[in-house]
């Protein structure tokens, strides 16, 4: 199918999305942490997905340490992070379509219960729409000149060589494509921002390698030489929350939404749409006063847990957890909720994605390997939406502290 046909299909699917759905036979979430709970949940997942998780379940010890090459130095062993599953999370996206059981690795009690509850509310409301809109990963080298005249001559030459830079990119990587270049001048400093599509990899390493190859060509051929240059100027937003990335894209930009009927908010979330909209307004004003980039509740919670489970670079939660949550009353007394994440740096190849438990977790989502990154990004959007709904429900109903007293402490 062409991109236009994909889009037409998505629009048709959104038009026909049901306003409600019945939950399938229960995922055994009610059984507390115990050997029996683990057995039941693994048996449930085996039946649903035909996966038996040899590494995650501990049946198979990890011994093939050669698989870690490229992932770590000075290795001594694996850190174990408790991992659970929430779901089903129902997603309608351009690539993610269906019900997913999402693995989350965390040591924060209440987190999975909260995301599970939000996912349940979204499921009953017909499932979340979650769409990956655009993508792009940047690297921003800086060049220093004696004066503006030299800088200008250099930049004019650079602008005339974009096609050559595209060719260099294609010889440095089979998958990276140079899509844009922007310049930023400050005194005698020039920052060039190269933006790429990085296939199914999250791409931070690829963009460094490709940009370095371009810079080597520039240094060898440009009519004017900079006094010095660095491969990264700290402008690209790599592992930092920045206003610039927030206003554009870094990685994938995803937006997700749901309409929650009033009765569902009352029954499942134990609050009201009015209270949730009121909480959202107050918390958004609080966020603005704090000087935060974006306005959201706890994207970092779900994303960090999913990133650990699936071998993403967890440090990229710095930028990935920036975004905007919106909660508004609908004309029939329900609640519209949306989340928008413009900086979702994720991949389904490369990085830590082929490590033993991480690969199993990506496979659980049907997201391991080539052709799966947009799907994975859309699942991230639906997960974050579920988390925003549940935490706002708890806070709006005055149940937040009690939940953490119950789930977040050893009894
Ligand atoms: C904890 C709940 C879910 C209770 O919620 P509840 O509605 O009182 O509980 P419930 O017993 O009636 O259960 C409702 C549903 O919750 C789920 N649920 C309930 N219990 C479990 C469990 N044991 N295991 C798995 N799922 C569970 C489950 O979906 C269940 O439905 P069921 O499946 O039974 O039909 C709710 O109060 C809640 O979501 N609270 C919010 C907690 C939260 O989101 N915390 C985020 C971490 S806080 C943080 O990191 C810092 C932050 C974000 O606060 C920073 C800041 O903003 O300042
Ligand atoms: N160097 C840096 O500046 C930084 C690096 N990192 C680290 O970089 C890693 C992430 O970088 P990333 O570039 O994603 O990972 P990798 O360095 O693992 O690069 C991806 C690799 O997968 C290959 N590949 C195979 N199939 C595909 C496909 N379908 N789509 C895309 N690539 C494919 C690429 O081929 P090919 O070789 O042809 O491109 C490349 O070799 C993480 O480990 C992260 O921690 C994080 C931040 C900064």
Automatic annotation (TrEMBL):
<dbReference type="InterPro" id="IPR009029">
    <property type="entry name" value="HMG_CoA_Rdtase_sub-bd_dom_sf"/>
</dbReference>
<dbReference type="InterPro" id="IPR023076">
    <property type="entry name" value="HMG_CoA_Rdtase_CS"/>
</dbReference>
<dbReference type="InterPro" id="IPR002202">
    <property type="entry name" value="HMG_CoA_Rdtase"/>
</dbReference>
<dbReference type="GO" id="GO:0015936">
    <property type="term" value="P:coenzyme A metabolic process"/>
</dbReference>
<dbReference type="Pfam" id="PF00368">
    <property type="entry name" value="HMG-CoA_red"/>
</dbReference>
<keyword id="KW-0521">NADP</keyword>
<dbReference type="GO" id="GO:0004420">
    <property type="term" value="F:hydroxymethylglutaryl-CoA reductase (NADPH) activity"/>
</dbReference>
<dbReference type="InterPro" id="IPR023074">
    <property type="entry name" value="HMG_CoA_Rdtase_cat_sf"/>
</dbReference>
<comment type="similarity">
    <text>Belongs to the HMG-CoA reductase family.</text>
</comment>
<keyword id="KW-0560">Oxidoreductase</keyword>
<protein>
    <recommendedName>
        <fullName>hydroxymethylglutaryl-CoA reductase (NADPH)</fullName>
        <ecNumber>1.1.1.34</ecNumber>
    </recommendedName>
</protein>
<dbReference type="InterPro" id="IPR009023">
    <property type="entry name" value="HMG_CoA_Rdtase_NAD(P)-bd_sf"/>
</dbReference>
<dbReference type="InterPro" id="IPR004554">
    <property type="entry name" value="HMG_CoA_Rdtase_eu_arc"/>
</dbReference>
<dbReference type="GO" id="GO:0008299">
    <property type="term" value="P:isoprenoid biosynthetic process"/>
</dbReference>
